[in-house]
Amino acid sequence: MKIGITARGNNLDSEVDPRFGRCEYFIIVDPDTLEFEVIENFSMEAASGAGVQSGQLVATKGVEAVLTGNIGPNAFQVLQAAGIKVITGVSGKVEEAIEKYKRGEFKPVESSNVDSKFGISEKGMGG
Amino acid sequence: MIVSVASGKGGTGKTTVAVSLALSISEEEVQFLDCDVEEPNASIFLKPQIEEALPVSIPVPRIDQEKCNFCGKCAEVCAYHALAVLPGKVLVFPHLCHGCGGCSLLCPQGAITEVGREIGTMEIGRSGDIEFIQGRLNVGEAMPTPLIRAVREEAKKRRNPAAVTVIDASPGTSCSVVEAVKGSDFCILVTEPTPFGLNDLILAVEVLRKLGIPFGVVINRSGMGNDKVDFYCQENNIPILLRIPFDREIAVLYSQGIPIVQGKKEYMERFRGMMDHVKELSRA
């Protein structure tokens, strides 16, 4: 089973991106084999609907869970409709996040934790 | 003739100028459109009798799940990402939809119909001899342009070609401003002689040049700030149509909802003179 992680860079050594819809990369990884696929997120620059588009993109990759820093309402709705677990508040390196996920340290959330457009604010951009 | 009033910077006095202009020429047939639909306030000064209020909707997609084969074409063509196609499911995000109709047009299965989603109200009435139309966007709506378009279309339908239409636009240089001013014969840009006023005036000038609309400038609160707006206008051959001084009496009138031309009669002539100037410039 694969999981999707938002990342600032294109490998497992990258930092987890605190934004979902407007993250820089999605890393789709098998937590057991650590085989991964990198998807550059072209929704990053979208004026609106970044969360919807990113949600749909991740959903087509057949992941069971998404690990990210923050998620807005539209993206959450897409992932929820696709039956994908959403884990927010994740930070640090991607490979550490994978380890924590395997150890069962994360709990899926029941709702979005930020408003629409969070990823365009200064806070969301990581300063 | 259609005269729009725009500004770049907010709070420079668009409504003040638009209202007084309309009142000063009310011997002619005048239509007044408040196209600042996110915060229409000309009615505070013109005090119109509203006779009709019509809901304004935009078309948003409704998916027939029986016909849909989840091919994803609709999400692919939607520039605003208002649709998400998942295996066996399509989600619609009506608040992101701009109502362009692309999805229903291009759906290979014919599975999309359009249903109206109300975004605001158009109010039609009269203020004395002036025909008054304003748009009022519902709170929380992000998309003013379809409502502005509806106001403009309604005005066009009702308009006697000899009438003067005065349009109060929203501040800024975004789509709403373009929608409000496009097709006008002349645009009056209201600014103030401050660095912010000048900065945003320059942006508004760029928009009007792109749209090919002749324009001139009204300097409101003249006497405060500096003379850089004057220099800019001079350098760029932009006519200064009127100066309204930075005057406590005018501010008091404004706070009481009294148009300048009613509170200070000498302005009646000044605004009328400005209109004559505008007519000349729009013909040139």
Give a quick summary of the entry:
The complex is a heterodimer of chains A (127) and B (284). Chain A has 127 residues and is of the alpha/beta class. Chain A contains 3 helices and 5 strands; from the N terminus they run βββαβαβα.
- Strand order across the biggest sheet of chain B? 3-6-7-2-8-1-9-10-11
Give unreliable regions of chain B as ranges. none
Category from helices, strands and their pairing of chain B = alpha/beta
Q: How much of the residues of chain B is beta strand, in percent?
A: 25-35%
- Low-confidence segments of chain A, ≥5 residues, pLDDT <50? 122-127
The helicity of chain B comes to 25-40%
- The CATH superfamily of chain A is known as Dinitrogenase iron-molybdenum cofactor biosynthesis domain
Shape of chain B: elongated
Number of helices, counting only DSSP H or I runs of 4 residues or more of chain B:
11
User: Hey, which two chains have the biggest interface?
Assistant: A-B, 17 and 15 residues
Name of the CATH homologous superfamily of the largest domain in chain B: P-loop containing nucleotide triphosphate hydrolases
Q: What's the quaternary structure here?
A: heterodimer
User: CATH class of chain A, anyone?
Assistant: Alpha Beta
Topology:
The complex is a heterodimer of chains A (127) and B (284).
Chain A: E1 2-7, E2 25-29, E3 36-40, H1 50-59, E4 63-67, H2 73-81, E5 85-87, H3 94-102
Parallel strand pairs in A: 1-4, 4-5
Antiparallel strand pairs in A: 1-2, 2-3
Chain B: E1 2-6, H1 14-24, E2 30-34, H2 42-46, E3 49-63, H3 73-77, E4 83-86, E5 89-92, H4 102-106, E6 112-127, E7 130-137, H5 145-158, E8 164-168, H6 175-181, E9 186-191, H7 195-211, E10 215-222, H8 228-235, E11 240-245, H9 248-255, H10 260-263, H11 266-283
